Predict the 3D structure of the following.
Amino acid sequence: MSDRAFLTSLRLSDSFLPVGTYTASYGVEQYVNDGRIETAPELGDLIAAYLERIVGPADTVALGNAHGAATTDHARLFAVDERLHAATLPAEFRESSTKAGTQLLGLLGEAELFDGVETTDAATAYLEAVEDGRTPGHYPVALGVVTRCAGIDRQEAALINAYSFTTELLGAAQRLGCFGHTAIQRQLSRLLSVIESVCTEYADRPLAELSSFGPLAEIMGMSHERADRRLFMS
C-alpha cells in the first residue's frame, strides 16, 4: 500500500470524517437505557458479539464483494447493496448505514476532497445510482468502493470498517456517561484480536454467504426508535 493509500485509510477510520457514523450507537444506547450493560467488560462482550454475528458475516462480506466489483461491475455493486439491505432488519440500522454511505460517496464525488483517488466507471455508476435512489448506498458497500479506488487492499478495507465500527460504539457508550477513557481503551485493546479474526474470516467470502444473526441487538434497535430519551439516531 502506498503512503497516500495508508494516509487515506487513516482518514477513513477517523470519526473526523463527516459521514455521520458518530451519531449511531446501533442499539448500544438502548442496552444502557434498559440496564443490560453496567460494566465495561459487558460492553466489550456486546461489541464482540456484534463483530462476530453482524459486522463479520454481513458487513465484511458485503464490503469484500463491493471491493472486488468496484472497478468493472456496477451491477454487482447493486446486488451487494440489495443483499445487505435485506439482511439489515431494524429500520434505524438501515437508515444509519445508508445515510453514512451516501455521505461517503458524496465526498468521493468531490475530487478535491479525495485528491489522487481514481474513480472507476463502476464506482461512478454506483454513485449515480445511490443519488437517484436506485440502490440504497449502504456504508460497507460504499467503503468497499472508496477503498478500492484509493488503492487500499481488501483486508485493510475490512479492518478499517470493523475498527471504526468498534470505536464508534465504544465512543457512544463513553458519551452516554457510563465509562471512562481508560475503561474504554481496555476494551478496545481486548477487541483488536476479534476485529482481526472476523476480517480474516469473512473478507473473502462470496456474497451468497452474507448473513446476519443478532436478534437481541435488532430488538434493541427497534425499541430505540420508540425510546423516550435518545442521544443517538440508532
